[in-house]
Amino acid sequence: MKIRRVIELKWSKVRSQGVKGPRVQENILKNNHLNPRTLEPWNPNGFTLIEVILVTLVIAILAAVIIPRVGFDTAPRASVEGAAHMVASDIRYTQECAMSTRTSKTITFSAGGNSYSFAPSNNLDPSGRLPAGVTTSALTLTFNSLGEPIAGGGGSLTVSGSGGSKTISISNYTGKVSIL
C-alpha cells in the first residue's frame, strides 16, 4: 500500500510539471537521477558561483603579488622610447619654426646631456629637457627657411638610458625625421 502511494505521488508530480506520455513517466519513476523538466541527468559535479568567485579572487591576489616581483619593469624602456619621440617631435618643431618664420633655426644636442637648446630662442620653444637617466649623443642641426637641413642633415642622434637606446635619423635633403 505504501509503495502504491509513493508511485501515485510521483505520478502526480510528473503530471504537474507537464511531462507527457506513459513511457516518459515510467522512465522518470524508475530513474530518480533524471531531471523531470529536461530529462537530463542531474549534474552534481558543477561549481557554485561562490567557488568560482573565490578562485578568481585568489588568482587575482596572486597575480598582484607575483607580477611586480618577476621583473616586468617597463618604465626604463618606456622612458627611452618616450624621450626619443619627444626629441623627434622637437626636431620637427625646429624645422617647421624655420619655415614659418622664414629664418634659420638650430637645435643643439650635447653628448651625454639630458637637455638641448634652440637658437634663436623664443618663448614658444619646448623645454628641451629629457627624463631623468636619459641622455643623447652630440648633434647640431640647422634648418633653413625652406625646412632643409643645412647643417647636421643626413646625421643621426642616439637617445639612450637604462632601458636601451633609440636612434633618430634625419634625412639629408628633406629633413625627414625617423626613429629607428
Can you walk me through this structure?
With 180 residues, the chain is an alpha+beta fold. The protein folds into two domains: 12-70, no CATH class; 75-179, minor pseudopilin epsh fold, CATH 3.55.40. It is elongated, with a radius of gyration of 37 Å. It has helices at 2-16, 22-30, 49-70, 75-101; strands at 105-109, 116-119, 135-136, 139-143, 149-151, 156-161, 164-170, 177-179. β4 (139-143) and β5 (149-151) form a beta hairpin. A four-stranded antiparallel sheet has the order 2-1-4-5, covered by helices on one side. It is 41% helix and 19% strand. The chain is built from four helices and eight strands.
Mind sketching the topology for me?
Elements: H1 2-16, H2 22-30, H3 49-70, H4 75-101, E1 105-109, E2 116-119, E3 135-136, E4 139-143, E5 149-151, E6 156-161, E7 164-170, E8 177-179
Summarize the structure.
With 180 residues, the protein is an alpha+beta fold. 41% of the residues lie in helices and 19% in strands.
Main features:
180 residues; alpha+beta; minor pseudopilin epsh fold; 4-stranded antiparallel sheet; 4 helices; 19% strand; elongated
Number of domain units:
2
Give the SSE string: HHHHEEEEEEEE
Quaternary state reads: single chain
Low-confidence stretches: none
Helix content: 40-55%
Q: Please report the number of helical segments.
A: 4
Topology, number of strands: 8
CATH class value of the largest domain: Alpha Beta
From the alpha-carbon coordinates, what is the Rg to the nearest angstrom? 37 Å
Structural classification: alpha+beta
CATH architecture of the largest domain: 3-Layer(bab) Sandwich
CATH superfamily of the largest domain: minor pseudopilin epsh domain
**Named CATH topology of the largest domain:** minor pseudopilin epsh fold
How much is the average pLDDT? 78
